[in-house]
């Protein structure tokens, strides 16, 4: 397989005019610089570093409610709606979200999955129903068995429970342990860091000492700007965090936001001082590395999970700086093709 256009190559997304060659196993074989006829823009598909697609049945419910009224267990609106839905309804809505994520250019998501082992199985069923187009990684919650069945452990927050045992079991299994921290206030950041997590989620309210610890422990942070806007908790100090550690980007609850990485990138670009290149890295390679995935960057030998945009679309035509245009301007309508995992037959 070959595609031509402007290829955003490597971690710097250096624009290279030419041809990308993908072998039968779905790996990038070569990137050949040459003059081509196409104005397509070829970039790595996105890795959404933090989602809760389980609440896909509750899109736009609960306008105006506080974070606690919306999502706090056991009686937040989300949990009441989840209890009222059948398993088939829940799985069907999750599969629909995965289909949209695929069509909007996302290759993988790190999903915080509630409901113990049964919850992990529901995510697997949804991913299969969506033809496996998105690698839906389950960061399970509940028992150690759920972590074993899934791809890691996704803890709610250090004020909710002790997670020392789960953390240890996750380490022994060689899987990543992530935890929400500092979403509403700073009180759960130190206890979360004490668990030596593989990543934190949100970190809206770090104090200087927390930033120092994040730097010392070199803990990546998944930021979710649109979610933080909807719930009114504030915004993370993106530049302060980016100076100290690796950032990734997530769309958080489907209940609150469409899981489109284009929208998340645009908001972050316009709410922060971060460069477009840094934001595109957060949306691709940084999330891929956090999850141990072999894509998220265009280099020979990598798995070819790619996104092809129509650089001549009415929206993108004439853009003078391609990475800025992708991050700040492009959208689902500009997609020409999403190259997912190859069919087993080749
Ligand atoms: Zn979350």
From TrEMBL:
It comes from Natrialba taiwanensis DSM 12281. PANTHER family: AMINOHYDROLASE SSNA-RELATED (PTHR43794), CHLOROHYDROLASE FAMILY PROTEIN (PTHR43794:SF5). This is Amidohydrolase. It holds the Pfam family Amidohydro_1. Keywords: Hydrolase. Residues 41-314 form the Amidohydrolase-related domain. The lineage of its organism: Archaea, Methanobacteriati, Methanobacteriota, Stenosarchaea group, Halobacteria. One of its GO terms (molecular function) is hydrolase activity. The keyword ATP-binding does not apply. The keyword S-adenosyl-L-methionine does not apply.
């Amino acid at each position: 397989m070959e595609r031509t256009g402007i290829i955003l190559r490597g971690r710097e997304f250096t624009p290279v005019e030419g041809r990308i060659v993908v072998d039968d196993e779905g790996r990038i074989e070569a990137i050949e610089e040459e003059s081509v006829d196409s104005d397509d823009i070829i970039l790595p598909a996105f890795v959404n570093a933090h989602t809760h697609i389980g609440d896909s049945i509750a899109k736009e419910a609960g306008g105006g409610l506080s974070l606690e009224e919306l999502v706090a267990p056991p009686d937040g609106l989300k949990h009441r709606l989840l209890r009222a839905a059948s398993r088939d309804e829940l799985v069907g809505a999750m599969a629909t979200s995965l289909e949209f994520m695929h069509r909007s250019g996302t290759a993988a998501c790190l999903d915080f999955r509630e409901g113990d082992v049964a919850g992990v199985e529901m995510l697997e069923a949804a991913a299969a129903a969506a033809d496996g187009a998105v690698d839906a990684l389950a960061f399970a919650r509940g028992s150690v068995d759920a972590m074993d069945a899934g791809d890691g452990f996704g803890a709610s927050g250090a004020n909710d429970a002790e997670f020392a045992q789960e953390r240890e079991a996750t380490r022994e299994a060689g899987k990543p342990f992530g935890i929400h921290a500092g979403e509403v206030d700073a009180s759960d950041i130190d206890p979360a860091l004490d668990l030596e997590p593989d990543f934190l989620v949100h970190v809206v309210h770090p104090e200087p000492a927390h930033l120092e610890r994040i730097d010392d422990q070199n803990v990546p942070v998944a930021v979710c700007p649109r979610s933080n806007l909807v719930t009114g908790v504030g915004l993370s100090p993106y530049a302060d965090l980016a100076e100290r550690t690796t950032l990734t980007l997530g769309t958080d609850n489907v209940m609150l936001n469409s899981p489109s990485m284009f929208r998340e990138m645009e908001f972050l670009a316009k709410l922060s001082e971060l460069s477009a290149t840094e934001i595109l890295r957060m949306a691709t390679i940084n999330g891929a590395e956090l999850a141990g995935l072999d894509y998220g960057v265009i280099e020979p030998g990598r798995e070819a999970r790619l996104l092809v945009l129509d650089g001549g679309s009415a929206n993108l035509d004439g853009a003078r700086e391609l990475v800025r245009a992708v991050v700040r301007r492009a959208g689902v309508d500009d997609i020409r093709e999403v190259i997912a995992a190859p069919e087993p037959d080749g």
